[in-house]
């Protein structure tokens, strides 16, 4: 039950929404549960039955949530281990990772032998008893789900031993198949153990049949909630539960993300196949190569990007462009606007008839509403926490509701998985985002995972948010995070003293903004045409100064009655934040009208300065633009606007404040990571402004400038020279020198080759980077990413989708005959009747080649040589048959994994370095020593590095690309079994004394009454016929 809004369906997506399968519905409808699924894999289940059974198990798993515990046992003649051997003799939390493991293992099950029900039921009862007695798992409902095609006996001795006289474990049975004989025993197991029996005969009815167990688990809840109106006044009893869910994305079905991934891969294959067809069209005839040099590298480029000659940076630009096109073609409206993360609050709706005609406990449905996490975060205003301070919320299972390092989707522009939800996005543990400085993974232990790393000591404060299952934590940096600057202009008093015009002058002109995501003052609806945060702020500024007794309303939600009051517009405001902006605008007026040594045009022409700015702790940003009229035609329009208006949330703001403790007078330089892929990217220079007092120091603002990178680079290369070298009169413009400006994290700010800008220097010249590490210029910091995603290659020809029946052998026979016929057509050249290109391909010889996407191929094709027999380049020739294989991508499947990476930070005691590296080879292959010089640039976070370009060394590569942590099998099992810190839900209603007296059915068939009814009808019809005959006579 939700608000009355139109349900929008994207025409490009399947409509998979079913409210009964949503977490908020299932959590509200029943209490937490321990579930053991017994899956019959005896020989009689072979064929369609095992496929239906797998579908039943998959749907059961989809109804579980993180408050539940589960395990799956498959059983046949002998004692079988659980479906996942690591989960033997235990129950595991039903989080996304464990559920995904179960689902993956279900794809590979096989049937054999006879079913041993005694062993299976005994094992299930013993595991549940152990969990109950050891105070493990949910300590609430306990359930056995039996999925079988029939049981030969009732096995009463097992139930008498473990489930009598008190029925602690409910048994739900799913009878699979149309023609089944052993039905009575399966019905008895469910009906005598407070469960439900269902008969599943086809795939289409699986979901409907599986969901029948939920109302049964809800019966104690319904009975406990029925109240005596004379005693309770008609209100809900205390046992009527209100539940909150964990975080999830507002999409119709979580499995939709897997579908989006398949769409992406199909698009990749389509592009590759289209480019392959273009290569075939360019062929000149049978036996001849395609147009141009048919080199492996060139063919890979053309198949992937449609262009043969590409260097590494050009490939990266093409990949980013392809991603933007693919995202627009294949992604739905949901992913185009970004996923909205929400939590839901819900409560069950019961049948409350005063005098029911029969004893029932009926669940009518669930009522609830979604709460966007963005609305919750507004109640912990960032300005109160200060720069680099943050808040987060966790649920009772220790999973993150929101956190600044929570990354539910990929954000890297070159990743194929971009903008698609990660497999375990909503079960991110607190210990996976708050990472301590250790060198071993998976410690129950802060740095945020980025390409740049900062070590920081932090203080944590937390409190429970009653009556919800959530807890709120506040994190403040040690040192400057202890104090906060406060400065306001009281608007009501200023208006009384005639300062209205003066205050409005603080906000004159277009070059200012407030934080676009913070709540200063806003209406609860979109009835007012205030399209920008700037116009909204000005609107309320005028209103606050012109309205006598202006009411500063809190951000709390108002009751419905108050919303209906006539003539009142509902809005929320933050008085302190709003008036702090006025104070900061007043203080920065000197920046607005101040003039430096150079005018605007000279600033731009001389230094490439585009903007100067000041951003304050209230989210207020003011800037100047230095752009002469004759420069507008040479700069991209997007770069003319100042867009960094998120103040304390900007990366340069945070880095400047953190760097202040290293050098309070330093300016922090930075460029985007993709600066080398774009023209006219910007260099941002920032310096923090602290206010110091007897009570301590606190950051008040950050000032800085933005330069056009092209002019900044040009100025550097024309003026910088080799430092600390005697008799060196060359500048960095010389061909004999390679010059770099590196930042404090080892990223390239300026290079002679523009495509290297923004890259990690270890990717540019790993040999020199290794030397810098040896000289203690940088030091390594090991980081772990516990929200990583790895791609597993799906083996082609997998039979996981097939029905394991005798028909598969017929399929193999047909496939074999078909392949032989196709080969005959190829060898007889009859294919040219369909496509002449295929006939040409058949006449070419098939050779091996090296392809990183196709492991197992070892032989390297010959290289291209000139007329003298010397190698001209590294061009590996490929034939059209090899090209055909290259045109096919390896299908992949995303999998959650842990990754590790070494990041680098500048050593504070780093000194100038003058060194050389031996064993290098210069001009004419002569031995030489490659010298380099490094010095710190004063009052900045930059290092000037000058390298001898005439003596190249064999270049190694130091990458900061995260790599998967290769755990040994026992460590993987240990991690999966690790019980996280958690708090059980407060409400658990799994028993009610009146449940046994209910008149409701347990799913048992009514075949006997139906037969009696039919027999009575036949007898009555016969009597009527005899009576009629007598009348006629």
TrEMBL record:
Domain VWFA: from-to ranges: 34-217
SUPFAM superfamilies recorded: vWA-like
Short name of any one Pfam family annotated for the protein: VWA
InterPro entries named in the record: Ca_channel_alpha-2/delta, VDCC_a2/dsu, VWF_A, vWFA_dom_sf
PROSITE patterns, A to Z: VWFA (PS50234)
GO cellular component: a single term: voltage-gated calcium channel complex
A GO molecular-function descriptor: voltage-gated calcium channel activity
Signal peptide: none
Domain of life according to the entry: Eukaryota
Protein name (database record): Voltage-dependent calcium channel subunit alpha-2/delta-3
Organism: Amphibalanus amphitrite
Gene that this polypeptide is encoded by: Cacna2d3_0
């Amino acid at each position: 039950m939700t608000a009355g809004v139109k349900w929008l369906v994207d025409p490009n997506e399947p409509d998979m929404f079913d409210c009964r399968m949503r977490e908020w519905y299932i959590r509200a409808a029943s209490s937490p549960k321990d579930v053991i699924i017994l899956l019959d894999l005896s020989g009689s289940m072979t064929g369609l039955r095992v496929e239906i059974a797998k579908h039943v198990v998959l749907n059961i798993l989809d109804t579980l949530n993180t408050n539940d515990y589960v395990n799956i046992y498959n059983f046949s003649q002998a004692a079988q281990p659980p479906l996942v051997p690591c989960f033997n003799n235990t129950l595991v939390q039903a989080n996304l990772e464990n559920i995904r493991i179960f689902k993956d293992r279900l794809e590979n099950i096989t049937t054999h032998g006879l079913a041993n029900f005694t062993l299976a039921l005994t094992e299930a009862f013993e595991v549940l008893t152990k969990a109950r007695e050891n105070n493990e798992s949910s300590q609430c409902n306990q359930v056995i789900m039996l999925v079988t095609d029939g049981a030969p006996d009732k096995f009463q001795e097992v139930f008498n031993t473990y489930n009598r006289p008190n029925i602690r474990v409910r048994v739900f049975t799913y009878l699979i198949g149309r023609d089944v004989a052993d039905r009575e025993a399966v019905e008895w197991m469910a009906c005598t153990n407070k469960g439900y029996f269902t008969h599943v005969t086809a795939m289409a009815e699986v979901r409907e049949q599986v969901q029948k167990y939920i109302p049964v688990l809800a019966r104690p809840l319904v009975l406990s909630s029925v109240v005596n109106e004379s005693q309770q006044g008609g209100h809900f009893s205390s046992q009527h539960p209100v539940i909150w869910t964990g975080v999830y994305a507002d999409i119709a079905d979580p499995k939709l993300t897997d579908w989006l991934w398949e769409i992406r891969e199909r698009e990749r294959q389509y592009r590759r196949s289209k480019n392959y067809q273009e290569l075939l069209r360019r062929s000149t005839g049978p036996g001849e190569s395609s147009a141009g040099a048919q080199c492996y590298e060139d063919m890979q480029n053309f198949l992937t990007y449609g262009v043969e000659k590409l260097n590494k940076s050009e490939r990266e630009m093409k990949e980013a462009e392809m991603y933007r096109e693919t995202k627009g073609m294949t992604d739905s409206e949901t992913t185009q606007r970004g996923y909205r993360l929400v939590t839901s609050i819900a409560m069950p709706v019961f049948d409350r008839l005063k005098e029911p005609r029969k004893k029932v406990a009926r669940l009518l449905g669930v009522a609830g509403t979604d709460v966007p996490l963005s609305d919750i975060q507004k109640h912990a205003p960032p300005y109160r926490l200060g720069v680099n301070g943050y808040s987060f919320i966790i649920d009772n299972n220790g999973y993150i509701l929101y956190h600044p390092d929570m990354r539910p989707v990929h954000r890297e522009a070159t990743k194929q998985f971009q903008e698609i939800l990660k497999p375990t996005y909503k079960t991110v543990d607190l210990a996976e985002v708050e990472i301590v400085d250790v060198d071993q993974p998976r410690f129950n232990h802060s740095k945020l995972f980025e390409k740049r790393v900062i070590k920081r000591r932090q203080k944590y404060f937390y409190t429970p948010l009653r009556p919800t299952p959530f807890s709120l934590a506040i994190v403040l940096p040690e040192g400057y995070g202890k104090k906060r600057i406060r400065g306001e202009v009281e608007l009501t008093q200023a208006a009384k003293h005639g300062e209205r015009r003066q205050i409005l002058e603080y906000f004159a002109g277009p070059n200012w903004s407030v934080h676009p995501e913070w709540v200063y003052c806003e209406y609860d609806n979109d009835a007012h045409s205030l399209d920008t945060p700037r116009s909204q702020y000005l609107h309320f500024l005028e209103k606050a100064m012109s309205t006598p007794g202006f009411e500063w309303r809190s951000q709390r939600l108002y009751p419905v009655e108050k919303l209906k009051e006539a003539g009142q517009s509902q809005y929320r405001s933050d008085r302190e934040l709003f008036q702090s902006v006025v104070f900061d605008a007043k203080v920065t007026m000197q920046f607005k009208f101040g003039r430096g040594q150079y005018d605007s045009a000279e600033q731009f022409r001389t230094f490439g300065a585009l903007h100067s700015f000041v951003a304050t702790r209230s989210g207020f940003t003011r800037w100047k633009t230095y752009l002469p009229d004759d420069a507008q035609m040479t700069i991209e329009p997007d770069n003319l606007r100042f867009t960094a208006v998120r103040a304390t949330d900007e990366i340069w703001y945070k880095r400047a404040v953190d760097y202040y403790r290293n050098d309070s007078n330093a300016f922090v330089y930075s460029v985007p990571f993709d600066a080398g892929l774009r023209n006219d990217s910007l260099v941002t220079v920032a310096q923090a402004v602290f206010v110091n007092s007897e009570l301590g120091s606190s950051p008040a603002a950050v000032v800085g400038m933005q330069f056009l990178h092209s002019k900044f680079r040009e100025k550097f290369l024309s003026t910088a020279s080799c430092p600390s070298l005697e008799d060196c009169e060359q500048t960095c413009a010389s061909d004999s020198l390679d010059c770099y400006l590196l930042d404090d994290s080892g990223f390239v700010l300026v290079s002679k080759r523009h495509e290297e800008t923004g890259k990690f220097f270890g990717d540019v010249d790993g040999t020199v980077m290794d030397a810098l590490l040896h000289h203690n210029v940088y030091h390594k910091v090991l980081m772990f990413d516990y929200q990583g995603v790895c791609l597993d290659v799906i083996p082609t020809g997998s039979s996981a989708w097939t029905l394991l029946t005798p028909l598969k052998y017929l399929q193999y026979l047909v496939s074999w005959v078909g392949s032989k016929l196709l080969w005959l057509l190829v060898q007889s050249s009859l294919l040219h009747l369909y496509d002449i290109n295929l006939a040409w391909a058949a006449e070419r010889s098939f050779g091996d080649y090296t392809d990183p996407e196709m492991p197992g191929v070892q032989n390297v094709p010959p290289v291209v040589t000139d007329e003298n027999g010397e190698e001209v380049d590294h061009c590996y020739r490929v034939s059209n048959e090899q090209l055909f294989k290259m045109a096919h991508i390896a299908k992949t499947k995303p999998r959650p994994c842990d990754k590790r990476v070494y990041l680098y930070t500048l050593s504070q005691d780093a000194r100038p370095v003058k060194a050389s590296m031996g064993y290098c080879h210069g001009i004419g292959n002569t031995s030489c020593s490659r010298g380099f010089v490094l010095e710190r640039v004063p009052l900045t976070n930059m290092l000037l590095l000058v390298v001898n370009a005439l003596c190249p060394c064999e270049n190694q590569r130091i990458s900061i690309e995260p790599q998967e942590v290769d755990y040994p099998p026992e460590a993987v099992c240990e991690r999966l079994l690790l019980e996280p810190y958690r708090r059980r839900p407060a409400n658990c209603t799994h028993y009610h004394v009146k449940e046994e007296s209910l008149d409701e059915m347990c799913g048992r068939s009514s075949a006997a009454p139906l037969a009696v009814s039919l027999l009575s009808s036949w007898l009555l019809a016969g009597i009527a016929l005899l009576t009629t005959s007598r009348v006629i006579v």
